[in-house]
Amino acid sequence: MRLAKMLALRVAAFIMARPGLDLFLRRQLFRFPALAGRMRGAIARSRHSDSPSLPPPLADEAELSEPARQVLHELRRALDRSSTS
Fold first, then answer.
1. What is the pLDDT of residue 53?
2. What pTM value is reported for the model?
3. Cβ(35)–Cβ(29) under 8 Å?
4. Closest Cα to residue 41, out of 78, 80, 9, 74?
5. 40-65 burial, b if ≥16 CB within 10 A, otherwise e?
6. CA 17, CA 70: separation in Å to the nearest integer?
């Protein structure tokens, strides 16, 4: 079952990347509203689960390790230099 879902999602991605084929198949799916709804739901769930979750923002720099703090300061300096240029 998992393989079938994965295959269906790959096929959907292939189709959505081709506008002509996408439009044709959307018109065909209109005949089967239940199937169209299930496809939309599966695609939405796959996009939601594929997106990486962001770590929670740090409340304080003190929570960072020394190397991480150093990288943060270097990034801030680089941003300051690019914004003044």
1. 55
2. 0.34
3. yes
4. 9
5. eeeeeebeeeeeeeeeeeeeeeeeee
6. 42
